[in-house]
């Protein structure tokens, strides 16, 4: 067992390590320097920044490189807050991100070794840490990143898909809270001579026509440079020219030397392209050749930025380089170069920019930073540190948005297009990012919302995101028993949470055979919401219950064509709630179909939503309002001449108008909803269906139209329906954008609450006799 004490100098620690190795092989390393209180890193001097990172991550690199042959396990501990910086509060001791990034890549290089990055809250008492780290050593080989939060729960790091705000009618990406980029916008961009960064700069310039301060190690490009112009027009001719030039210099024109010169010219051309794009868009471009690791040089450049612009709207830190070599071959000079350009470069730029008004910071990370990658311990360490730096903005600088983009390998542009890399990516199952998808990403991220956080920009990740254990790190015996009708075969993943694959057969289930549109069974939206609750309950910690299903979107109906069985996939990823002690399960229901002309099944996301898990009990509610039916009602004999529901979903016995809304009595004679009939339900789906239909009757009666569910803001069960004696009533109240509905007993005690129910109209009109009957009741 090895500790890395912060008080040792590098030489002292190297000597201590050599001494320990003489006593026998070292089985494992517990690396603890990232537990030290780092204070306010924004107040550091450069030597303090470098010293802190030397102790935390460069010492770790030297240690694990020295011990490589024995393949020791590695457990690192950090104080990022207990959630690795992915909670609403943001990361605390951000330098720990570099340690976590290293650990993830070490795991890629040593897949058979146990590797853990255990994150703790700042308040965790030292006496308990050793026991906790030993516990992590002895369990769960499938998960590297573990958060041990102050609430006593144990978290992993997964990801959820979130759609951009839809484009406007004019193609604009602007959404609520997003930035407006225009002539007055000021951009500072590092790494500006990279081909990818140049293309992104051109996109931002075209959208804004603003002022761009472009920083790169590459010298200022000369528009009249013959090599640049030949690079643009005829790369083969440029190669021939370079070969001739090398021979004239008495050098051998090897492919390595020619490619090295081409790369130099390519960066000059990319820098010139960025400058031209800005000026062509009517903007102002200022180019600064600068070594980002030179603090004095950077300070001079940033002072010019301050004098010329005064403030920064977008600071895009894209500088960096990557050299892939496993630890034994990765020399300290190389590790320091790759690591320092990104991290010390950031420190030097931010040290000069932090006192200015900065609207948003975007840092370029990589899937190597998110998942780790073989040969990239330095690159992964640097990237994950930057991710934690911008996460910390939510805690210490909320006025500045912080966004980290974890880019996958780009196709058609950049380093990953050269040599054998595309083939390697294909063999690893990694889908490369098309430029037409990636170039506009930064702009859309800035304009579409106020989001701050880390974004994985990737398609299929293949081996990059492969599980380390078939269980996904989850103890299957500890998963709650799935006894509801919507839970089938359960699996789990470190990255995507828990998944249930359920095969449903219309002939067996009342909720399908009696829920048909134009003769085709369609999964009721209420059973989709039930599936979310059931799957979320599988991994709910002890003492938690489903409090609500929220933010539900019914994007596409789930149809069972030709009455054939169909497999549904329900997934749930649980995160801590932004405030309070609740947990939020982010859920999706998908299904696949083989379509003519398609080489692979087409997967559709039909429903999405969240489930709130809580330890608190529901608060009782009651409402006023009569439940005695007036003389004018509409009965089920009329309702189900135009509603498509069969017996199991003919939940309305009669309905009427009351106090500016509609009321419906529940039909207690409906047959079983599902088989087995005693399989428990969580969300009272047929009472929610009663709510849907009651709201729908008001729409039909007052607007002469039928509609299907589109979204639900929230549904909650406050009282066990089985405990109610007597009739149940749904009371729908129209709102500005939909309906709020409560289901009560005869005394007015609330059983189910449905808020923010909205619909999408169906084409066609009601028949004249039905419209007349409904109009007489609800008009």
Question: What kind of sheet is the major sheet?
Answer: 13 strands, antiparallel
Integer tally of domains: 4
User: Which CATH C-level class of the largest domain is it?
Assistant: Alpha Beta
Shape: globular
What characteristics describe this protein?
Thiol Ester Dehydrase, Chain A; PKS_DH_N; 4 domains; seven-stranded parallel sheet; alpha/beta; single chain; Rossmann fold; 779 residues; PKS_NRPS_Biosynth_Enz; phosphoprotein; fatty acid synthase activity
Describe the protein in words.
The chain has 779 residues and is of the alpha/beta class. The protein has 4 domains: 2-155, 3-Layer(aba) Sandwich (Rossmann fold), CATH 3.40.50.11460; 186-215 and 280-465, Rossmann fold (3-Layer(aba) Sandwich); 476-614, Roll (Thiol Ester Dehydrase, Chain A); 634-778, Thiol Ester Dehydrase, Chain A, CATH 3.10.129. 33% of the residues lie in helices and 23% in strands. It has a 13-stranded antiparallel β-sheet with strand order 14-15-19-20-21-18-25-28-27-26-24-23-22. Strands 9-8-7-10-11-12-13 form a 7-stranded parallel β-sheet, with helices on both faces. It has a 6-stranded mixed β-sheet with strand order 1-2-3-4-5-6, with helices on both faces. α2 (46-66) links the parallel β2 (28-31) and β3. The radius of gyration is 30 Å and the shape is globular. The mean pLDDT is 92. GO terms for molecular function: fatty acid synthase activity. This is Beta-ketoacyl synthase. Residues 631-768 are annotated as: C-terminal hotdog fold.
